[in-house]
Amino acid sequence: QTEAMPTAALAQFAIAPADGVEVARRLLTQLPGSRVVVSTADLAMRLAQRPQAEVGTSSKPNGLGGQHPRPQLANPYVAPRSELERTIMRTWQEVFGLEQIGIDDNFFELGGNSLIAIHTMTRLKKTLQVDVPTAMLYQRPTIRHLAELLAQDEDEAARHMAERLAKRKADLGRRAQVLQRRR
Prior knowledge:
Layout: H1 8-11, H2 17-28, H3 43-49, H4 83-96, H5 114-128, H6 135-139, H7 143-182
Helix pairs in contact: 4-5, 4-7
């Protein structure tokens, strides 16, 4: 099977396979739904050569338009109650481009899918500075439940740290007693 050869005019803008993999990696870490342009040449120059009607006129960063209202869902809107819920909500708002998301709104009913889930959880990992497995979103697809699970994990991590510190303190106490007996 032969591949179609680009014309000489387009060949100068072709992307190498390794570069294509890097572009795909970067796209997966960016906001889904945003406009993305992959250009192997000076993008500003190429845009300047296009007719003005074709160039985007969005005033928002990243070419994003305004946020959309919350869709009609079976459950009523419930505002976030904690800072953790507000943080998760802000991340979801950025990802979905929605003005308002309630803590009982289901991620997948808002339009989420597996690719958006990976992206969302990557953003939460960066924002919260904790390891947040993407599987959590499938187990707990609402902000309320995700926050509860994260808080529970945080409490468990704190409990383990306290246990380790108590054990270390006991070990140091025993060592200190041994050293005192030797004197």
